[in-house]
Each structure stands twice: as C-alpha cells, then as structure tokens.
From TrEMBL:
Domain of life: Eukaryota
Taxonomic lineage: Eukaryota, Metazoa, Ecdysozoa, Arthropoda, Crustacea
Single GO cellular component term: membrane
Sorted UniProt keywords: Signal
Gene3D superfamilies noted in UniProt: 2.60.120.200
Residue ranges of coiled coil: none
GO molecular function: chitin binding
Record's protein name: MAM domain-containing protein
Thylakoid recorded as keyword: no
InterPro entries: Chitin-bd_dom (IPR002557), Chitin-bd_dom_sf (IPR036508), ConA-like_dom_sf (IPR013320), MAM_dom (IPR000998)
Domain MAM: 34-192
Length: 301
C-alpha cells in the first residue's frame, strides 16, 4: 500500500511540475561554458528549478550534511552535486536545467556525467535525463537500475544529442528522492563534447592552367580508445569499443537484436534487453516491439 501511494503521488507531482518548468528564457550558452565539475562550489551556469524542500546542493566527502549516508569518493576532485532534503522526510523532486544551447542540423553532441544513486526502495529514488526543445521534454536516459541499497560507487554515463534543426535545446536532470535515510542522488563531472568534421583542401594545377580543388573530409580521432585499453568482451572477441565515451552500441549486422554492447572505459559488455524489447541505436535504449515496426519479423517470433 505504501508503494502504491508513493507512485500515485509521484505521478501527480510530475504532472504539476513539468508543465511549469519550461524555462527557455535563459541566455544561450556555448557548449564549452556548460561543463561543471562543481569544484568551485557553485551550480553556475546550470539553473536550479526545484520546488519545495528538496533541492540540489554542492557537497563533498568532508562537509556533507547527511552524516548517516556519506557519498563514496567521487571519480574526480572532491566536490559533487547532491540532492539536499534539508532535514525533510517527505518525497521530493530536484530539478537541474542547463542554459539553452544550439544544435545545428546533423551535428552530434555527447554529454557525459558521473552519478551515484542509493535507495532502500528503488521505485522512489531515481535519476532521469531529458532534452528540452520547443517546450517539449524527451527522455534520454533512465538510471533506475542503479538505485540500489548496496550501491557504494560512482558510475559514468554518456548520452547522445543529434541536432534536427538549428534551434535552442536544454538538458534537464530530474532526481527523485525517497523518504528513507539511505536514499540519495548525486551527479558530478558534467561535460559536453562535440564532434566536428574538419575539412582539408588539396589544390592541384591542371595542364590547362586552371585550378582544380578537391575536398577531403576527415573526422578527428582524439577520443579513440588507446590500444592498451581496447579490452574485448568475452562473448565476442571481434567487438571493440569505438572511443573512450561510455556508450551503447548495437550488435554489428543485427539492427533488430534484443542485445547490445555497453562500453565503459573502453571495455565492452554484452547486455540483454528486459522483456520482449529490441535495442534501438537511435535512442540508445531498449524499445518495445510496437515502437520498432521495422523489426516485426523478429518480434513476431
């Protein structure tokens, strides 16, 4: 009964808050200005949009406010951003929004971040990442699987944004924090990385005196995994992570597979979708068959 009451309360709370938090009036920022490791003890330029007692607050291992539930040592530095319940024992949602930024059509941006979630009741404590565009918010990642009472380590995650048109975007973190002492949500080391194609012009002189210009497009490989870290998954010795971002990849040659590879620190692990779902590389998540019409033959079987 307790669990049902909390789920209903969560749904009502989100319906009330989501409609009022479309704040696109903030000044647009360059991507390089959105990185934050919170070592300067501020949220800026990120925007606090939490309502009520539960809010985001910068903490660290030596000056945290929840003495009975200290966070594990961060991956980098000592400061991190954590949900502060301010002594309240009520359920709440902490909301953190980035300033708006622009994505040109076809451009790709990778947003990486570290996080820690701990909960006695995983259904009540969670972290979700959304991208906001034109007043709509689209879910990019749901990290409920990491909300566990035994979780004592930070994890890394990367989400992919692909520009559909030149317009303003915003990234939003929603942290749902339960009422128990063990419940906690924290994030750290938010980084925006863009892959831009570099163009090299090669000019040659023809025999007639006219100039012929050829264009060669190359993609920087600065983020490739070092050869010493290219560890392969035991299930498939042929698969190698493409770069050192924490990403998911489809099974090569099988776009309708219920499995996928998850790369973390250049190490690939074969993962299975739960239930009758298919991995969708566009959303980097498992989708029900109803959303994957091109895979109807596989779903039928």
């Amino acid at each position: 009964m307790k669990k049902i009451v909390f789920i209903v309360f969560t749904c009502v709370f989100l319906c009330l808050t989501r409609g009022s938090e479309q704040n696109f009036g903030a000044e647009s920022k360059e991507l390089s200005e959105l990185d934050n490791d919170f070592e300067d003890k501020t949220l800026q330029p990120w925007i606090e949009e939490s309502q009520g007692n539960v809010r985001w607050n910068v903490s660290n291992r030596t000056s945290h406010w929840e003495l009975l539930n200290p966070a594990p040592q961060p991956i980098n530095g000592k400061n991190y951003l954590r949900v502060d319940r301010r002594g309240s024992s009520s359920f709440g949602v902490a909301i953190l929004r980035s300033p708006t930024f622009k994505l040109s059509s076809g451009s790709k941006i990778y947003v990486s971040f570290a996080f820690w979630i701990r909960s006695k009741w995983p259904a009540f404590t969670n972290l979700e990442v959304y991208v906001a565009q034109n007043g709509n918010e689209i879910l990019l990642d749901n990290l409920y699987n990491y909300s566990d009472i035994s979780n004592r380590s930070w994890q890394s995650r990367t989400v992919l944004l692909t520009g559909q048109s030149s317009t303003d975007f915003s990234l939003v973190f929603y942290a749902y924090c339960g009422i128990d002492t063990e419940d906690a949500v924290a994030i750290d080391d938010i980084q925006f990385r863009t892959f831009q194609e570099s163009t090299t012009l090669a000019v040659t002189e023809s025999t007639s005196g006219s100039t012929i210009t050829t264009t060669t497009v190359t993609t920087p490989a600065a983020l490739d995994c070092p050869s010493s870290l290219r560890k392969r998954d035991a299930h498939d010795s042929s698969f190698v992570c493409q770069n050192n971002l924490d990403m998911r990849y489809p099974i090569p040659g099988d776009p309708c597979s219920s499995q996928y590879y998850e790369c973390v620190n250049c190490v690939a692990t074969l993962q299975d979708c739960e239930g009758n779902k298919i991995y969708d590389d566009e959303t980097q998540d498992c989708q029900p068959c109803s959303r994957m019409p091109e895979c109807w033959i596989v779903c039928k079987n």
